[in-house]
Write a structure and sequence with these properties.
The protein is mainly alpha-helical. The protein is built from six helices and no strands.
Length: 123
């Protein structure tokens, strides 16, 4: 099973791994395609990339550009990317939610210390 090979290796050789914190880039792919989870459990992560349609790959690439623009408070660029995402998938609530957040955030002053996180005050 490709998803757990790293865990199996850690169990076999626990002294080879450190619990020391590290700052590393990480890509996580969430996919809402029929049968994708079962298929992904049998494939290496790099092989999954070829299973995506060109439309899905373009959407993921656009999302990948949107997140850093959003965190950098580049609202004009974020809006353009979000419009493209909404054209690709108008019903995706996540894109609608970020469009509403950006509209709300644009009304506030620029905050150089903001890291892109939203702190909710209510449940």
């Amino acid at each position: 099973m490709a998803c757990c090979s790293g865990v199996d290796e850690m169990v076999k050789n626990p002294d080879s791994y450190s619990m020391k914190a590290a700052n590393k880039g990480l890509t996580v792919m969430f996919c809402n395609m029929n049968g994708f989870t079962k298929m992904s459990e049998r494939m290496a992560p790099i092989d999954l990339q070829g299973q995506l349609s060109s439309e899905s790959a373009t959407e993921l690439k656009t999302w990948g550009a949107f997140v850093p623009a959003y965190r950098a408070q580049d609202w004009d660029h974020s809006d353009v990317l979000l419009l493209n995402l909404l054209r690709a998938n108008a019903k995706k609530y996540l894109y609608q939610l970020y469009a509403m957040r950006i509209a709300s955030i644009r009304m506030r002053a620029y905050d150089a210390t903001w890291n892109g996180a939203i702190n909710f005050q209510t449940k």
